[in-house]
Amino acid sequence: QVQLVESGGGLVQAGESLRLSCVYYGTKFSTYTMGWYRQAPGKQRELVATIAVSGATDYADSVKGRFTISRDNAKATVVLQMNSLKPEDTALYHCNRPRAVMNWGQGTQVTVSS
Known about the structure:
By secondary structure, the chain is mainly beta. The chain has no helices and ten strands. It has a six-stranded mixed beta sheet, with no helix packed on it. β7 and β8 form a beta hairpin. The model has no long low-confidence stretch (mean pLDDT about 95).
């Protein structure tokens, strides 16, 4: 059974950094585009970063220049490095496969205080 496990969230102050990790338990990780999503209370889930099989990356305008997504195919892991965090980055963060969405993991909470 394929499973996603996210970790690395926490409570930080504005301007600080966090590094989120997502471990993919399953097969063929290296063949999928992976992405990080977030959902703030009362808002729709938002795709904030993607990384293709080729390693090409894309970001939502709201995080461009502050967040960096990377992947390690050998470890079946995708990482989101978040710098210069803002209160509006506060949300529950998940990873998933944007083009073949699977069951969601538990996510990891990021809270940024001003």
